[in-house]
UniProtKB/TrEMBL annotation:
This is Uma2 family endonuclease. Keywords: Endonuclease, Hydrolase, Nuclease. The keyword Transferase does not apply. Gene3D superfamilies: tt1808, chain A (3.90.1570.10). Signal peptide: none annotated. SUPFAM superfamilies: Restriction endonuclease-like (SSF52980). Residues 30-188 form the Putative restriction endonuclease domain. It holds the Pfam family Uma2. One of its GO terms (molecular function) is endonuclease activity.
Length: 200
């Protein structure tokens, strides 16, 4: 497609109005009111971020960790997946998984608040590498989320990078890199055989 054709396509009147951000960018609440917005659209720095089709590895890791964390979580904690979290006016990302207290859950809500999260987890995809390694951890730390995990694909094996918020600096500190086994005592006791992902 030529550059001229791309410009014509971009300015074609059939494009929905929400493709073009308002002055100052979108705000978090806009995502609840934009008609026909693609599922799992995120808001990062006032801009809409659309999710690419996910690979099998991503789906298997998210499903596996969801089940394992739910099994290990103490009573009163809930695991949620692929729901957006309002961190601030222009930030509404969608972690792959997160843990909240049951008191923060409402049956009809379409988002959660950053201050409610105990743990946020991102499973890195090729198209989201920069966001998952850099921008999102920064946003989660600024929102005061105490624990963050980043999961990466190393030769079809899941490697979990674990971080904890340093209250003195307001940023995350790496506390471990886990290959075949994820054994932690915070934010609660859990012991996960990461090789189990291969059996899904």
């Amino acid at each position: 497609m030529t550059a001229e054709a791309v410009i014509q396509e971009m300015t074609h009147p059939s494009l929905p109005d929400w493709v073009f951000p308002p002055p100052g960018g979108f705000v978090a609440e806009d995502l609840d009111h934009i008609p026909d917005l693609p599922a799992h659209t995120e808001l990062i720095d006032g801009s809409l971020v659309f999710v690419s089709p996910q690979a099998s590895f991503h789906m298997r890791v998210v499903s596996f960790l969801e089940n394992e964390i739910r099994r290990a979580a103490p009573q009163g904690l809930l695991v949620r997946r692929e729901m957006s979290v309002i961190l601030s006016k222009h930030q509404r990302p969608e972690p792959d998984l997160f843990v909240i207290p049951a008191s923060a859950d409402r049956p009809r809500q379409t988002f959660y608040r950053g201050q409610d999260l105990i743990l946020a987890i991102e499973v890195v995809s090729p198209e989201s590498t920069v966001r998952d390694r850099s921008r999102k951890p920064t946003l989660y730390a600024e929102a005061g989320i105490p624990h963050f995990w980043r999961v990466e694909d190393h030769s079809d094996k899941a490697v979990v990078y674990v971080y904890e918020l340093d209250p003195a600096t307001g940023s995350y500190t790496a506390t471990g890199i886990h290959h075949d086994r994820l054994k932690l005592t915070t934010p609660f006791d859990l012991d996960i055989d990461l090789t189990g992902i291969d059996r899904i």
